[in-house]
Amino acid sequence: MLKEEIVQNMRHIVDSCMGEEIPACVTTCPMHTDVKEYIRLIREGKGGEAVKVIREKLFLPRTLGRICAHPCEGKCKWNEGRSPMAIRALKRYAADNFDRAEDWDLEIGPENGKHVAVIGAGPSGLQAALDLRRGGCRVTVYEKLPVRGGMMRVGIPEYRLPRDILESEISYLDRLGVRFRMNFEVGRDQSLSQMMEEHDAVVVAVGKHQGRVDRSLAHWDGEGVYSAAAFQREAALTGGIAGVGKCVLVVGGGDVAMDCARTALRCGPVEKAYDICLENSFEAMPASAHEIAADLEEGVKFYLGQAIRTIHVDENNRVCGVTLRKCLSLFDDQKRFAPVYDENDTMELPDVDTIVFAIGQGVEGDFAKGILEQHPNGNFICDHETLQSSTHEKLFCAGEAAGEAVMVIQAMATGRRAAESVLRFLKGESLTEGRDLKDTWTYETRLDMPTDWEEIEGSRLAARSIPLEERRKNFREVELVYTKEEAEEEAARCRQCACRLCMKECIMLNDFTDCPKTLFREYLEKGHLEMDHMIAYSCNECSQCTLKCPKSLDLRSNFQAMKIDLAEENQGIVPLEALKPSEAGQVKECSEEYCTTVPGSPRSSDGLGKQKTKYVFVPGCTVPAYTPAGVENILCHLRDSLGEENVGALLQCCGKVSRFMGEEERFEERNRLALDKLDEMGCEVIITVCPSCFKIFKETAKNQRVISYWDLMYQLIGVPERSRGIGRDSDVVFNFHDSCVTRDEPTHHRSVRWMMDQMGYRWEEIGRNGEDTRCCGVGGMVCTSDPALYERVYTRRVGDFSSRHIVTYCGSCRGTFETAGLDSIHILDLMFGPVHMSDQAGKRGCKDENEMWQRRLETRERLNRFKK
Known about the structure:
- It contains 34 helices and 24 strands.
- It is an alpha/beta fold.
- Helix 1 packs across helix 19 and helix 4 packs across helix 7.
- It starts with a helix and ends with a helix.
């Protein structure tokens, strides 16, 4: 059974892993359009597939590609680099070029015999009608205006959204069988209560068409004073404004105000357009930066930090100028809107003859009096989650009527949520049970990816516009669609935000899962004994997954614990057949036949007559089986430097292979055998050349300090005199490979490079090394448990090198790269062998297992000579 701490670690991974987290561009979109996916497809030149992805969520892709307020861009990761992706423009590119009516999905669910009324043909009403029809309902949309689209049609100027495009996309609902009744005003042509009697449910989706003017001012009702809603509606329905003058003053600092000013300049008699707002800088204005820029480009003049003090009218009650006053501040100490003015700081705009107040709009709710409760801010009161009315179960609200929508895409999301509630209501189901209400709300992503923006180039590619002279006095569409080249260039900037950095690094994980969250959730559900045991035995234990993880999640410990438990379930023996032969090697490496103890010369004692060897060199297993002469030379160097009476040696396995296999009891037994001998020798300092021995003894040796031979040379004894400058004439430029076992021992990395410099050998650093080094493939005994995976791992590592001449200080790593066909050198070869030249590249390892054991015996014999 796994320890509780391991189970808790698995739970922590499941809770914390960001592998399944959705990027901010998707979570911020109220309709959760798969932005990342369709941008990827555009980048790959697959516009047709991209528009299919868009249409999975949006039935107005061409419309939204023009007028969406794109909250996704506000959360784009590129904002950190001050250049968010042009998501809306990319949507338009895909929709304008690849959306075909013949490809639209006309499938609807089985007819359920229910008839639902939708009041309002704006974005929320249209979306609700679409989803209800797809759900099998008969749907009738009742619209007060003679045109469809709500504020998209009469609130957004035609130069931003051509009417034929909007109407074409709405025609999708006609093809699905949604019925529209235009010029139908609820309350006039039929009461809401009658409508409720004739329908199984009613969705109230009216928009904010009731404009506002500042009624605190004298002459607020003078001729030439408009609300933004009335102004834009008249322009949309008639192509102009009948009573407009020559100089229009727009009051407000939002996007609607920006639209009104540009609309005014397109109306026949208008010669000038001004905008005033309370904010004292463009940056403080609520309007989008690109909207402000467009107004400035078209000649709108701004008066920032100003408010109307007086509206002047002539004898015919026509506006004939305004007096402005300076706004000093907008909010009080409690952050409440409470503007303060300087009544003595005024200015005159005598040429103003038309005023448009863009200071907010409200929902017209008279038709619902006595039936729907209306909030003081204008919207109807309904359940925040289900949008069901607080007064009648058959009534549901959507869009601005529900008090949620401030943008088209958000209105559509509430229409979808209302439709889902209606469908559940009509079936007699719970409106909340088993429902993911996040599906139509924006929410914060948990995906938090670190990005080094200094290494990333590129900036947003702005969409082109038609020349300024071609826009004057007409409503031609201003913004142009991306070309194919522009779209693919912009799409190429997308970071394709996802975590799964461990998956990009770890070859093994990709063989078994799509991300750690998925894998360990399955472990928790099934239990590790019911999972594929090869998962644990395929881990190299290199910890790259943890290094790459932004949250430093520890996967390695789980796999280690599983191997231990699998062995315990099998009477302490590794159950994997491929690893069982390794046990015989461990037995030999701990046996008297292949081991020896060499004490220091009998001149040092503990004061009680018992010989004491302060420094004990432990060469490990791989190096003695590779270079017996190298082991002997190290001991000589140590004795010459530290005194032969102080230095001994122990040829004994540390037990690491048993630990790799999960045979923890055998590991502890074998490791204890080595530690007991070290204690018997009076050892104070263990000197290692094997990275695994270093880490094992650093963990288990309680009575000794552990230091690598490399660090000892750097800190105290220097390289052997014979080795100094030995490589100056070499024609080889080496690459280093650092062992993953001691990736967190930077002094080792420093010391071996210093050694190369002392020897005069040239070397060249590679990117993935030191603390970020990659495993050679041997780790975790994967070389034995899964040879094919081992080959893939070392082949990937070989690709990191810029030279075929590799120097390392791990015997197993050296052997791996020789297997991979490289000129693989142990640093001991360079220190104690002849100068290495490029023409000396060749195989140095043992030709078979028998030779390996012969070399081990030779090492034992060489060490035993020091006893004499």
